[in-house]
Amino acid sequence: MELSISANKQNAWWRSLQSQQESTRPSEENDSFSKYVPRHADGPLPEIPPRIHLLGLGNVGKLVAHSLRSIPQSPPITLIFHRRRLAEIWKRENESINITTDGITEARSGYDVEIVVPPEIHHGKIVKPNSFRPEPANVEESSTETTGDPGNREQHSRVAPPPHKTDSDEPIHNLIISTKAWQIVGALLAVRHRLTFRSTICFLVNGMGIIDEVNEKVFPDEATRPTYVIGIVSHGVHTKYGSLFSATHAGFGSIQLGIMPRYNLPAPISEPITSDPGLSDTASVDPVQSSADFDTNNTERQEVLWSPTARYLLRTLTRAPVLCAVGLSPHDLHLAQLEKLAVNCVINPLTALLDARNGALLYNYALSRVLRLLLAEVSLVLRSLPELRGTPNLSLRFGPDRLETLVVSTANVTSSNVSSMLADVRGGRQTEIQYINGYIVRRGEEIGIRCAMNYLVMQMVLGKGHVTAWEAQEETPMVGSEERKRREEKSKF
């Protein structure tokens, strides 16, 4: 009897405690933690259009496009071609992307295609704006003209216009760009009128200093600048000679992603974006939105940390299991970028100059001395960067010994690979040396450090690229050379 009375008292006490907790629990409207939930300036989060545009179908671009189509309920993907002839080749190859992994080839289709011709830029000046000028329907391949110097030449083939969308004004909300670093400015200038401050651009490129160049030449107004997502790709992908829409996934890696934060942005007056381009203010064809789109009378400036489209793009990329994409904070991503830059400052230029695979740098005393001279300058510059002040273990993380360990381990793991810079030099194409060793030279000059070794290597790679291009122009025509030139034209991006 006493046990039953005590049990009843205990149950009554527990019910009263639960009722007190429910009465004191804050409602969803008055929740103090709701202020940490990202909100749009005009209210709740807007509806985000799911379509993803992909600009640049190199090795990384093909892997990303193929992986995004393999996830359940994959988003619609639009491939942007920068040459009109690519659309014809795309149609002949069954409008699919083929990725070979461990000898098994898998094809993915269902992509939309657009053609956007970028402007021609020489010495930082636009000499020909981007415009799609269709040729007569009966013109096949009348001529091929070469412009620019041999080291930075581009061939333009006049072909019949393909039956695909060209020079569209449809807004781009989610853009992934995976071109060469030196092609990014021209590629973005071609689609700048379709990007707004609500858009997100994901950069999957090598080198550093690209964001500063894009801000200066493409989006100088910070208030109307899209959100940036930076990606570091460690996958090993290579393409067979003449294969435009096929690639081999040889080395499994990861993609480290980070959203660049935007601070103190004014609240826009316009309505939230919608999935209908006709109802969205982002359908404007103005190159850059004017300051009239913002409430200049509102003195309260808002801090925007996460763009809705950036969060959507980050979630979509992390859903693809093949990509192994992970998100990092901006500071951690910057440190990872600098580590990869230090490795590329050694492996890429030395393999390009030696015309050898990555493994040639190992077990060679003379090359080890060159390696250490380069890393001594790189380490000094990285440890002196003003944005890294206060970083724990900075001198240890970017010390010459640790950087040498990273370079040797990377060369050992990828000993049979051909670096991207060596492939560009062999093909007579422009390299990304100015965004790798050139970045170290520029940052060193800003803080008063002269990087003679990196400057020497950069100029030697540039010079070898010119020599290779001149040799290709002056080579003696052989049987089958015309067919080979046509294959090279197809493989150019």
Distance between the termini: 88 Å
Number of helices: 14
- Characterize the largest beta sheet: strand count, sense, and whether it forms a barrel: 9 strands, mixed
Q: Uncertain runs with pLDDT below 50, 5 residues or more?
A: 1-5, 22-45, 131-164, 266-302
Mean pLDDT: 77
Shape verdict: globular
The counted number of beta strands is 19
Determine Rg (CA atoms, Å).
26 Å
Q: How are the strands of the largest sheet arranged?
A: 10-5-2-1-11-12-13-16-19
**Which class best fits the helix and strand makeup?**
alpha/beta
- What percent of the residues sit in helical stretches (DSSP H or I)? 25-40%
Write structural notes for this entry.
With 493 residues, this protein is an alpha/beta fold. It is 37% helix and 16% strand. The chain contains 14 helices and 19 strands. It has a nine-stranded mixed sheet. A four-stranded mixed sheet has the order 4-3-15-14, with helices on one face. A hairpin with a 6-residue loop joins strand 8 (144-147) and strand 9. Helix 7 (330-354) packs across helix 10 (400-413). The longest helix has 25 residues, at 330-354. It is globular, with a radius of gyration of 26 Å.
